[in-house]
Amino acid sequence: MQLLVYLPSIASLLFCLNHLLPPVIKSWVPFSPFGPSHASAPWQDVAAEKRRRDMAKIPSEWRLPQKVIDEAGQRRSVADEFIESLLDPDSRFLTGLEVPALMEMTANGSLTAVRLTTAFCKRAAYAHQLNHNLLEIGFDSAIEQAKSLDVFREVHHRPAGPLHGLPITMKDQFHVKGMDTTMGYVGWIDSFEGNKSSERKHRDESEIVRKLRSLGAIVIAKTTLFGETNNNILGYHWNPRNQQLSSGGSSGGEGAMQALRGSALGFGSDIGGSVSMPAAFNGVFSIKPSVGRLPTLDMPNSVSMPDSKSRRFCNLPIALSPGQINIPTVAGILGPSIASLRYTMEALLFSEPWLTDPAVLPIPWRKSLEADCVGKLSFAFMDFDGVVRPHPPITRALNMVKDALQAAGHEVIPWDGPSHAQALAIHAAITSADGSYDVFEQLKLSGEPLIPQLAPDFPGSKPGPVKNAIEVEEVVLKLKKYRVDYRNYWLSTANCTMTGKSNSVSKFGPCQSLLTSSGFLGRPIDAVILPVVPSAAVIPGKLFHYDYIASANVVDYTTLVVPVTRADRSIDIPDPNYVPVGEVDKKNWEAYDAGIYHGAPAAVQVLGGRLEEEKLLAIGQVVTEALKKYYNF
Amino acid sequence: MQLLVYLPSIASLLFCLNHLLPPVIKSWVPFSPFGPSHASAPWQDVAAEKRRRDMAKIPSEWRLPQKVIDEAGQRRSVADEFIESLLDPDSRFLTGLEVPALMEMTANGSLTAVRLTTAFCKRAAYAHQLNHNLLEIGFDSAIEQAKSLDVFREVHHRPAGPLHGLPITMKDQFHVKGMDTTMGYVGWIDSFEGNKSSERKHRDESEIVRKLRSLGAIVIAKTTLFGETNNNILGYHWNPRNQQLSSGGSSGGEGAMQALRGSALGFGSDIGGSVSMPAAFNGVFSIKPSVGRLPTLDMPNSVSMPDSKSRRFCNLPIALSPGQINIPTVAGILGPSIASLRYTMEALLFSEPWLTDPAVLPIPWRKSLEADCVGKLSFAFMDFDGVVRPHPPITRALNMVKDALQAAGHEVIPWDGPSHAQALAIHAAITSADGSYDVFEQLKLSGEPLIPQLAPDFPGSKPGPVKNAIEVEEVVLKLKKYRVDYRNYWLSTANCTMTGKSNSVSKFGPCQSLLTSSGFLGRPIDAVILPVVPSAAVIPGKLFHYDYIASANVVDYTTLVVPVTRADRSIDIPDPNYVPVGEVDKKNWEAYDAGIYHGAPAAVQVLGGRLEEEKLLAIGQVVTEALKKYYNF
Question: Which UniProt keywords apply (chains A, B) (predicted)?
């Protein structure tokens, strides 16, 4: 399957002719693309040294000529054909394959782990030089691990695990042996969570990393992060598919790395869209599972460490602490296809992560939920939440999905569920309950300033007000009520779907799912199609509305991002007579610029029920196949 | 299976000769057995009127003669042969049967719902007159429902559901149509959560009640509750098997009702032993599932109601609010046998409660977990936590279980896991975070005083100090770490078990469970045998140590209570040379009085992994069968 489903119009031809950045770009770039430009200070030297050290880990034969770097700086996109044109054929071929195909090859021995790892390391090295998205590089040790895996295969005549030799990248929030974990904090460089003399420095691993390693995967590098994505080590992180736009946050480096195919798959973390937004902005697939499906043990913001003095912050746009578990952070996966996400989720659950992470639920991979999702499905559809109307590229992407699904025989009904604005208010109240004081504790370690993206949330550059337990409990009651209302609305769609018209289980049709096997209800919708955010990626500082995506975390539903098309200045023309429904809608609408957004990935969100990962991935496959078929790719 | 496994000694003979209360009792009874004895006040009139109203719901033909009541007041136990001697043979026969047998009879039509319900209502009426344990009586409507069920069966030639006509009781924390829910608050009488004019009064039902009803069950009455169990409506609640002792809290009325067999099964709620303690004290079986297995939606302390002004308090020994979900309240089941609990759990999960309660996990009943638990099992055993040594009856019960298991070929190894005292400290810090201010809001409704059992926790009879969000998060980090430590210790037992000696999955033996199917670990223990509390029931005011039982909620593991024997003054003689290890141990040891405790049920706790309800119930069956076989019943 292709990474992106392109619109079969002359737009794609135009795109090639228009890959250069318009001259306007320089005027609104808030930071130099590589490293912040503050006056010299000790923390800056530390950050600069870290950048130099990482760059030195790229072998000289993988260094790009300055000419190429310069050319890349002038381009709109450095992804797709640009990065591919720089690669040798073998690396290009291997890095273009999806996870299941690669794992079939390493399992049957037709592809060695070393060859595969080397191909991805090389492409990751190019990706970093073009896009500055790695906070840690581990190519050497990755190739060493690949060698061991090859030896294992030779001795045992079988792969070490279902992810034998799979080169992956991790958001720099996961601990990986031999590597820094900075979380974007200068004060965390060369330390264990800020403690430079800790014995655990460069030794500890997060549980999900241990599991991935036990399955045969190899972490080749760690990707940049923090709000929108910006930090004082690597600076503002640009979208590799449109360098005038943000790569999204907080897993932006991972989104970019997947767009550039610098690894076969990547891992991020999500508290309110931190996986989904970067996936959508960069035009890759992602899954944000429900809480308790993938391990989060020993992630810096997820568990207390004996020698860690305070809690850890990571996600954006809103700060939070690991002791806040009313809406917990989850690990999510970003990759080139639904099949890649599915293969990896199944492998991770095969490792029975509930044995060692007490927060993981003992729910194995349920093939029955997948197998049932064939035949006619019912989708709810929301292209406008009544608060902020998406820009034309997103509206077009949504309609493309709707048309393709209907053409494939599926049903699409309107979604008019509980207010997402209410969900966001609950989300903000819960995740800001501790005033995000921990962020400032970490900044103090090095003396670095708060990134400007966060400044508006923290007047005077100090922690916000702290709620007391009674106030927090009041919000949690709202959270619980919202979840019930959302669930009830979802169930009530059984009254609107064709599939739900009958009350008899046997007539529900082929999709027997968690939602349909009760016999007490007609069949409600299978999933909701809605925007991720109201823009195709975003001009820095111009994301005003997280409501479409943060709701998924509030109700703890599984959500997928499916890239659909690219913004096209020739067709995504805003209605000049549009009358915004409110202040935020106006700001968002005025922020649209067809010229700047041109070429930006436009994705949709596919939202499924709580803990229905298997079902939703099967539905995601249905959606992408409908798109492929309808648009004749 | 018998309700209790009696020790086959002459003690049981002695017991019959010694059923009368020793004269000492009056001197330490803090309250009259029926209703508090404060000076007259408006709230007292309301409570008295409620008591009269409830008593009036008992038909005159089911009223016990004053002579019987008087005799009962002088007896040690009013359960077992005493209450049975009062019943007609048919009622005695039917109320002596377990849930699966009863449901087979109502399903095949050999028993009508009306006959069954009438039998239990009659026995419940006797139970209340002897033990004052009902806060609401609904015999009339129960028999009406039974009639409808009989009509359904006649028309459709099948039962309405797997619980067709099952008469059950609910702790007075669940909303049931047509009934008061008081939570023990005088201010809640004739109201919806304190709001007397609410349209929802006597109309709303808690989700678990809706589910039970949909399965065919009939709620015949609601049982008394609150700390130890005491409230200002019914007063202090005595243990029906030893009227000098407490029935435990906070589901004490339900424990007593099960001991008296006034319903076929009962439901309680648990935040830190509130189901397990009453089950143990009254000598009945119970299961406290992990969070998310049974619905808690629309329980007064579990979800916000639109017209409810504040949050609700219910559990003891520690107060908490429904907005506190770091350690949430769970619903638990109390009944006459493991088979009864198992049958009901399976039926409830058959109703797919996750469809309508978003907090319920989509985990159906897993027969595979049960089927695997045959053959040799490994148990860990803890008879002393190093802090408070159990009284002789509990130590004897523990050893009886150990001996029986070993005789049946199972392995028993020592348990030396993470400190339960640490767990209790975490528990207390989390559940008291909001200062339990809500209790005082509810007391204000009527002007009733705080019950004396809670007074020591609230100096000056006002809410405790309130933590801020940062302080709460700090405790949650400890909670998360404790859970990891506990899990790791549990897994580490694979190094100590015979069954864990091999690292090969195929050699693990027959019990392939969640814990053993990974292939990465040897097989750890299957369950832990430990005390519930250090005494067999308890002399009022003398329960000093909740650590053995509250830990189960801290780690969110499933726990069963299995009654084993009865305290026996002729053999449970304390070692006069025992040197207490600390202050609490000393207080507890000194509180033991073989004469007073004589006849009190002595139970053990069987602790299983998180969300392993199916497995643990299968193990509970193994334990009870081992006891039956070894002690030759």
Answer: Hydrolase, Signal
Q: Rounded CA gap, B222 and B225, in Å?
A: 10
When pLDDT is cut at 50, 70 and 90, the band that residue B196 belongs to is: very high
User: Taking residues A122-137, what's their average pLDDT?
Assistant: 97
Collect all residues with Cβ–Cβ distance below 8 Å to A587 and sequence separation of at least 6. Answer: A542, A544
B297 to chain A, any CB pair closer than 8 A? The answer is yes
Can you read off the two tokens belonging to residue A365? 């991979």
Nearest residue, CB atoms, A483 vs list B358, B474, B514: B358
Find all residues with CB under 8 Å of A250, minimum gap 6, and list them: A171, A225, A226, A227, A228, A229, A268, A269, A274, A278, A314, A315, A316
In Å, the largest CA–CA distance within chain B is 72
Task: Band the pLDDT of B500: cuts 50, 70, 90.
Answer: low
DSSP H helix total and E strand total for chain A: 22, 13
d(CA A257, CA A123): 10
Taking the C-alpha atoms of residue A211 and residue B123, their distance in angstroms, rounded to an integer, is: 56
Q: By the 8 A CB rule, do B422 and B475 touch?
A: no
Query: What was the pLDDT predicted at B495?
Result: 83
Number of H-type helices and E-type strands within chain B: 22, 13
Question: What is the sign of the dihedral through the CA atoms of A440, A442, A444 and A446?
Answer: negative
DSSP-based helix, strand, coil % in chain B, nearest 5? 40, 10, 50
Nearest CA in chain A to B610: A358
- Fold held by A11-630: Amidase signature (AS) enzymes (3.90.1300)
Phi-psi region for residue B509, left (φ > 0), alpha (ψ -120 to 50) or beta? left
Beta strands B601-607 and B559-566 are antiparallel
d(CA B533, CA B244): 17
CA B330 – CA B592 distance, rounded (Å)? 31
The string over B140-178, giving b where at least 16 C-beta atoms fall within 10 Å of a residue's C-beta and e elsewhere, is ebbbebbeebbebbeeeeebbbbbbbbbbbbbbbbbbee
CB contact under 8 A, A303 and B474: no
**What does the alpha-carbon distance between residue A328 and residue B479 come to, in Å, rounded to a whole number?**
14
User: Which token pair is A212?
Assistant: 């991935």
pLDDT of residue B431: 87
Q: Give the burial class of B512: count Cβ atoms within 10 A of its Cβ; 0-12 exposed, 13-18 middle, 19 or more buried.
A: middle
> What is the nearest CA distance from A537 to chain B, expressed in angstroms?
32
Per-residue pLDDT, B300: 84
Supply the DSSP string of A19-57, one letter for each residue. Answer: -BPPTTHHHH--S-SSS--PPP-HHHHHHHHHHHHHHHT
Tokens of B495: 């190094």
Kind plus residue range of the DSSP H or E element containing B207: helix B207-214
Please indicate if any CB of chain A lies within 8 Å of the CB of B68: no
Å between A522 CA and nearest CA of chain B: 12
The distance in angstroms from the start CA to the end CA of chain A is 9
DSSP assignment string, B569-632: TTT----TT---SSHHHHHHHHT--HHHHTT-EEEEEEE--TT-HHHHHHHHHHHHHHHHHHTT
Contact A486 B297 (CB under 8 A): no
Instruction: Compute the distance between CA of residue A422 and CA of residue A443 in angstroms, rounded to an integer.
Output: 32
pTM of the model: 0.90
Q: Are A599 and A19 in contact (CB under 8 A)?
A: yes
pLDDT of residue B39: 53
- pLDDT, tens digit (0-9, with 9 covering 90-100), for B120-156: 999 999 999 999 999 999 999 999 999 999 999 999 9
Q: Is residue A290 within 8 Å of residue A558, measured between CB atoms?
A: yes
Q: Which helix (H) or strand (E) holds A529?
A: strand A527-530
The ipTM is 0.90
Tokens representing residue A159 in the block: 């792969």
pLDDT band at B322 (very low <50, low <70, confident <90, very high): confident
**DSSP letter for each residue of B407-418:** HTT-EEEE---S
Whether residue B337 lies in the annotated active site: no
